[in-house]
Amino acid sequence: MGQEKNYMIGEISLIDTNMLAYAYDESEGEKHEICKRLIDGCWRLREKYGISIQNLSEFYVIITKKIENPVPKETAKEIIGDIIEFQNWIVIDYDARTILSAIEINMAYGVHYWDALIAATMREHNIFSIFTEDSDFKNIPWLKVVNPFESMLE
């Protein structure tokens, strides 16, 4: 955290919680493989991705409690620590004003509040693209939504 906003508008995409969780959940088969490759691009310095502190918090709960084979809490802590410290992960946060912006997005586009908070945080950090399978984000007109699983559905 505390990383400078030294990237260009539209240069990076945010990785939503579900993408990060699938990357570490081997029970998810093809979704795991797709997300692992996606995330691997960041670890191998080919891509820079944004991730919010909200995503990291949600990720911790999901991989330690909600997946078929939960990850030990210490392992989850190490993964999150690595993301926070790694140069190609841009960790973004929000402040009290972001909450008001999220409420506006929630009211204007009918998006679930927690998704609206991620969108508001993204906008404040000039990130306008998100990798997710959550279709709610498609209701936000200024946001480009990329679902890496769409080829699986065809």
TrEMBL record:
Residues 14-142 form the PIN domain. This is PIN domain protein. It comes from Candidatus Argoarchaeum ethanivorans. InterPro entries: PIN-like_dom_sf, PIN_dom. Pfam families: PIN.
